Amino acid sequence: MILHAVFLSNSHSETATVIPANEAAAHINEWATVEGVVAKVFTSKSGNTFLNIGATYPNQTFTGWIPPASPVSKSPILSGIEGKHVRITGRIQMYQGKPEIRINAASQLEVVSTLVVQPSKIPYTSLAAPK
């Protein structure tokens, strides 16, 4: 596995707890690092960019929201980020029934792996001992 980090030191004074995207809704208003696989990147006509984690909109389990004024909105990291395992750090908020973090700085977004994973194509492997 090749690791590629874009994560810079976090200047926020709180320590971020790492949680999987499907558990983010249980941590609203907490400062945390949410991790998961980017299923889709979408940029609206108004320039907002959304990193849908876990599934495509409207079935995503978590969203990384990048406003147009954020320097991350022009980052080359966004092209080709689909299918990659990422970590997004910030305060988890609820928006239209889905947890999200607003990404205002490059230090909030980390690509954990350049390994491309299709969320619906992950094979199931049983950990049970053979009979």
Architecture overview:
The chain has one domain: OB fold (Dihydrolipoamide Acetyltransferase, E2P). The protein has strands at residues 17-20, 31-43, 49-53, 62-66, 85-91, 93-95, 98-102, 109-113. Strands 1, 2, 3, 4, 5, 6, 7 and 8 form an eight-stranded mixed beta sheet that branches. The chain is globular, with a radius of gyration of 15 Å. With 131 residues, it is mostly beta strands.
Give me the secondary-structure topology.
Blueprint: E1 17-20, E2 31-43, E3 49-53, E4 62-66, E5 85-91, E6 93-95, E7 98-102, E8 109-113
Parallel strand pairs: 1-2, 4-7
Antiparallel strand pairs: 2-3, 2-5, 3-4, 5-8, 6-7
Question: Gist?
Answer:
With 131 residues, the protein is mainly beta. It has a single domain, classed as Nucleic acid-binding proteins (OB fold (Dihydrolipoamide Acetyltransferase, E2P)), CATH 2.40.50. Helices cover 0% and strands 36% of the residues.
Mean pLDDT: 84
CATH fold call? OB fold (Dihydrolipoamide Acetyltransferase, E2P)
Query: What profile does the largest beta sheet have?
Result: 8 strands, mixed
Tally the beta strands: 8
State the CATH superfamily name: Nucleic acid-binding proteins
The total number of structural domains is 1
In helices, the fraction of residues equals under 10%
Shape designation:
globular
How big is the Rg? 15 Å
Secondary structural class? mainly beta
Taken in chain order, the helices and strands follow as EEEEEEEE
Level-1 CATH class name: Mainly Beta
CATH architecture: Beta Barrel
- What is the rounded distance between the termini? 32 Å
Strand content: 35-45%
Low-confidence stretches: 1-13, 122-127
Number of helices: 0
